[in-house]
Amino acid sequence: LGKIRGVVQDRTIWEDTIFARMLNQHPDKIISDMDYNTYLDLFDNMVLRELVFPQLLIFLDCRVETSIERINSRGRNMEKAIEADYLKSLQENYYQFIEEMESAGVRILRLNWENFQPISEVVRLVNEYSLKPSNFTKWVRPLRKMGMENKANLPNKITVAK
Description:
By secondary structure, this protein is an alpha+beta fold. It contains five helices and four strands. The radius of gyration is 18 Å and the shape is flat.
């Protein structure tokens, strides 16, 4: 990144874990425990060891009902099947993800996005947070499941160090 002081993205690879977790937690077990664990192994080895850790995450938060209104107003065919239950689960998993990242030392800029805000205000807030090196050194994620209970008294969380 050389002289670049910071990078802003609207979505990151870090968020992929949210969708993998949702597929694993789905009642139909769309991703089995074994496949989920394999995904986490790949994520740990490829992402946690190779990518620059985020300095700041911007979280645009709104109610599920607002999301549904926006989806409907766009009128995109590919979005017509999105249900409120899915969005509620996605929101809950994002909240959990934000907590995990925050507890790992990543600064989170939480914005109420019920109403769109001018980009100049978002830029002002980002500058206020400033893009100093973050304290992010590890990511604590839930213990992997192997389709059995924790009879060995294993820790409930695993710390993945940089």
